[in-house]
Every structure is written in structure tokens, then in C-alpha cells.
Amino acid sequence: MTHSLTDLDFYQLDDLLSPEEKMTREAIRQFVQREVLPGVERHFASETFPVELVPRMAQLGIFGANLKGYGCAGMNNISYGLIMQELEAGDSGLRSFASVQSALAMYAIYSSGSEEQKNRYLPGMAQGKLIGCFGLTEPDHGSDPGGMETRARKDGRGWVLNGTKRWITNGSIADLAIVWARVEEGITGFIVEKGTLGFSTRDIHGKFSMRASITSELVFDDVRLDEAHHLPNARGLRAPLSCLTQARFGIMHLRICILEVVNRLCLDLLGQEHLRLGCEADLVTLLDGSQGDIRELEVRFRSTHVGNRRRKNIERSFYIEDDILDRLVEVKVRGD
Ligand SMILES: Cc1cc2nc3c(=O)[nH]c(=O)nc-3n(C[C@H](O)[C@H](O)[C@H](O)COP(=O)(O)OP(=O)(O)OC[C@H]3O[C@@H](n4cnc5c(N)ncnc54)[C@H](O)[C@@H]3O)c2cc1C
To answer: Each residue of 199-208: pLDDT tens digit?
Structure first.
């Protein structure tokens, strides 16, 4: 039994959307149905990113969708969130690509770059002709970026950059990397273009999720950069963190998508069409009152989506659903 995502709009959120927002969502939904789902499983299996979809995504105005000027679509934030929500329903890796390109790489230049840098990079990025990545995480510094060890020192009128970034989405396919580094005054950002001497990348393989997404290590070995590659308005940790805030808006929407998928899965698994699930709390209530216990449901959930390739979008989002299930198990065990 299948249920469309709109069947699961128990709080009638649709009524809050404008016709333009619904139109944007419908365009991305059609794109996902017709152009993403038919081929993305192959990329998931082979750990490749579907680069062939990038021009079409650009045409749909996905990159930098909520930025104004510089060839960006200038949509509102809700539309941007709906785009992320629909892309996530296709594949987490594809959504991640769009999120990194837009909210991290483009937004870093948009918010901290000079006018020359904005004009030089943003139109090409909006058109999908330039791919960006965002290098903040380091091998020993993930949740605490303030501990970063990547350093840039002044050298005449330019800079010399040294360090390593790890777990960087789009790393090896990016034409430019936004790199955060420590300088004498604190933390600042640089634009490092592919091919710059001393800059190399290495892909990380064997990921359990986000498989249709490239994740890389970036290495900077005495990389020389001129001032034109320094983000002049990136002062302090606030600069990269404001990019993460931009990205979080999309992350919130992808969570809505995942909850919808989990709800749909429960409807399918339990075969109770009358069930009305709208949030995790309702889900817990359902599980408490259901014929199977949560462990059983979990086992059925896992065996079903491993065994049924048609549920590939769920499998690819597994790490987040895992988190939801783990917390549900916790709630059940604690009895609250
Ligand atoms: C597929 C993928 C793509 C990514 N893409 C990018 C990218 O494009 N750019 C980028 O810069 N980074 C990227 N990352 C890195 C990601 O943002 C980091 O994984 C994240 O910041 C967490 O860092 P960590 O993995 O080192 O975990 P850790 O910091 O080691 O944390 C491990 C666990 O401990 C918890 N924890 C940590 N500190 C505390 C604390 N003080 N109190 C309580 N709990 C704590 C965390 O919540 C987490 O559960 C990516 C990661 C993955 C897996």
C-alpha cells in the first residue's frame, strides 16, 4: 500500500503555503519522481554522485535558491526548505549536495566575500557550472570547530595555508573549496580553487549512508593564496557558524520529510489505514498501543527495508531514522 506524502499532512500545513511555494515544491517533486529515483539506486550502490543531474537542478533554481542577485532565484526561505524536503525524499546525498552548494559554499561567499568574489563565483555556482565544498571539520575537530588546527600565515601580500579537513561533502568534485583556517587574529575563510599547487583531495569510501554523495579529505600543503582568495568579511568563528545556521533551515525540512517517510512506513507495516500519525509523540503512542512491541516493529522495519529495494529512499536515510527508532526504543524502555 502506498501513501503520498500529502496524505500524511495531519496538521494541514499545506494550507499555510502560498501558490508559489506549492508550485516550487511540485516542480521539485516531479523532478525527483521522473529524473532522480529511476537512476539513483545505481549511484547509491556504486558510491558515486549523479553529476548528470546538476544542470537540471540548476535549471530548477535549486542552487542558492534563497539568495538574491548574482543569478540566484531569490525565492523565500520556505521555498528553499520545501526544495530540501523534496530532494531528501529522492536521496539524502542529492539533498546534501544542494545544501552544501547553496547554504554553505555559496552563502559563505555571499555573506563574507567581496563584491568581486561574489560576481566571480556566484553566477557560475547558481548555474551548476562551478561546484563548491565547505571545509570546516578536521580529523580531530568535528563538533568543536574552534579547536581547528588548519593555519594560514601572512606571506608578503598573500597567504600560505597548511592543514587537513575531513568529511567534506563534494570535496573531490568541487571546483572551489571554502576553507576555514586559523590566522593571527582568529579564524577566517579562504577560497581555494581546484588545481591550486599544494591542494589535494582523497575520497572516503565505505559509508553506510549518504552513499550517493562524495565525501573527501582535503589536504593543504603550503598552498599559496593571494588576497583575492581571502574572504574579507569572514572574521571569527561566527562566519562559518552563520553558514551552518543557513543549512540548518534545510535540515529542519529534511527531518519533516523523514518523519513523513517513517509514518508512511508504519502505515504500510501495520496495515492500519485509519492510523493518524503526525509527530514522534503520536508515533510513540501508536507503538505503545500496537499489536507488536517496538523491538518487533524495529526488526520488521529493518528486514523490510533491507529486503525491499523499492524502499531505497528510506534505506539511504537510514542513519537519521536509526536515530529516531533508537530514541523511540529508549522512550519505550524508560516507559515515558
Ligand atoms: C557524510 C558526511 C558529510 C559531511 N560533510 C561535511 C562538510 O561538507 N563540511 C564539513 O565541514 N563537515 C562535514 N561533515 C562533518 C560533520 O559536520 C561532523 O561529523 C560533525 O561536525 C561531528 O563531528 P565528528 O564526526 O568529529 O563527531 P565528534 O565531534 O567526535 O562527536 C561524536 C559524538 O559526540 C557528541 N559530542 C561531541 N561533543 C560533545 C559535547 N561537548 N557534549 C555532548 N556531546 C558531544 C556528538 O554529538 C556526537 O554524537 C560531514 C560528515 C559526514 C558523516
So the answer is: 999 999 999 8
Distance 135 CA to ligand 1 centre (A): 13
Per-residue model confidence as pLDDT tens digits over 28-47: 999 999 999 999 999 999 99
3-state secondary structure of 203: strand
What is the residue with the minimal CA distance to atom 18 of ligand 1?
Answer: 142
Contact 106, 126 (CB under 8 A): yes
CATH number for 132-241 (one of 2.40.440.10, 3.50.50.60, 2.40.110.10, 2.30.30.40): it is: 2.40.110.10
Q: Is the beta carbon of 188 within 6 A of some atom in ligand 1?
A: no
| Domain 5-126, architecture per CATH | Orthogonal Bundle (1.10)
Distance 315 CA to ligand 1 centre (A): 21
DSSP state of 33: I
Cα–Cα dist 74/62, whole Å = 10
